[in-house]
Amino acid sequence: MNLNFLKAGTADALTLNGISKRAFDSDVQVGAPSAGGPPGYMSVQFHTKMARQGHLYKLTDDGLIVGGAILFLKEEELNIGRIFIAPEYFRKGYGSFMMNEIETLFPGVKEYTLDTPAWNIRTNSFYSKMGYTEIKRDNEFVFYSKHILQ
Predict the structure, then answer these.
(1) For a disulfide at 8, which of 58, 80, 143, 150, Cβ 3.0-4.6 Å?
(2) DSSP string of 113-146?
């Protein structure tokens, strides 16, 4: 494995869009009521816009794009809008690597936030394992936070 986590460009939007669609559609295997994902998860236009605005990132393995993230930095808080890995790379450490890289890339951040569907056992256990604490939940989502002491 030769992994890199980098800012994505508009030229990466098509590839990341395909990975996003496959990753989120695979959630039917872990409790999703049907194939689908967050808004824009299968829109090349959305991913291109996120790249233009500097929010889109890519995870590469030997130069091949295997996953991505959409991140929103607001002063000392970083919202992890979403992360996604191509299904053939699930459960091989790519997600953990990406989360660690996100935390390394933004040294000034004091709090990381994210949310994930309540029904998704895979992502809820993953975020807990990565040190995120549940701060609230509603009928649809579990909201997590991780504070960094500096």
Answers:
(1) 58
(2) EEEEETT-HHHHHHHHHTT-EEEEE-SSEEEEEE
